[in-house]
Design brief:
This protein starts with a helix and ends with a helix. Helix content is 75%, strand content 0%. It contains 13 helices and no strands. The protein has helices at residues 2-14, 18-34, 39-43, 47-59, 62-72, 78-85, 89-102, 115-125, 131-140, 142-167, 172-176, 180-190, 195-206.
């Protein structure tokens, strides 16, 4: 495989037939446009950069592809053009929200995305290949975003519960015995403002 890739690069560098160059450039252009890069930025790439990205694309290693693209420093301003062409940012966001819902993600994910990422998802959703959306979501790392958001919420809840229990005189030993289920239940009760329910929940959770 390495020899094949090196041969491809060598042929391209030495001057390939027009049809071969067009095929390589088309592959690179489509990959960049799908990721939200403008035609002007793509046109600024040197032959060496086109070759480098083409080889990365043929490796199908998403991490390598992202690293190569990031190294080019291309401006990603497709989002503003896209919003104008699609009837405005609100309409584009609504379309992407529908895509995310169809893919099984909650409404809150949309607010975690940048304008460029929203543009990428919208562009992939207009492709005839349904798998483009899945690939784009994977490249953006939406699952990691959701996991990170969930962990942050859990951490905040745990810190709140711990602080409240300490303030109410619960020992560190009893607090350490609480599991995730106890923390979740206590967080809900502690934020309810019902003192009677709070005292009962704390007594139940910390009972030996």
């Amino acid at each position: 495989m390495k020899r094949l890739l090196l041969a491809t690069a060598a042929v391209f560098a030495l001057g390939t037939p027009a049809f071969a160059q067009t095929a390589i450039e088309t592959t690179v252009s489509e990959a960049l446009m799908t990721r939200g890069y403008s035609a002007e930025g793509i046109a600024s790439l040197t032959d060496a950069q086109v070759t480098e990205l083409y080889l990365a694309l043929t490796s199908e290693d998403d991490a390598q592809i992202q690293t190569v693209i990031a190294g080019f420093g291309l401006p990603n301003d497709t989002s503003s053009d896209l919003f104008a062409a699609s009837g405005g940012e609100e309409q584009t966001r609504a379309a992407v929200a529908e895509v995310l819902t169809t893919a099984g993600y909650p409404d809150t994910l949309l607010d975690m995305l940048s304008s460029e990422q929203i543009a990428q998802i919208y562009l992939s959703s207009t492709s005839e290949d349904a798998s483009d959306v899945t690939m784009t979501l994977e490249e953006i790392g939406v699952d990691e975003m959701m996991a990170s958001a969930g962990n942050t919420e859990e951490t905040d809840a745990g810190m709140y519960v711990t602080a409240e229990l300490e303030r109410r005189g619960v020992s560190a030993e009893d607090i350490a015995k609480l599991d995730d289920s106890d923390i979740s239940e206590l967080y809900i009760v502690l934020t309810s403002g019902d003192e009677t329910a709070i005292r009962e929940a704390i007594a139940s959770a910390t009972a030996s």
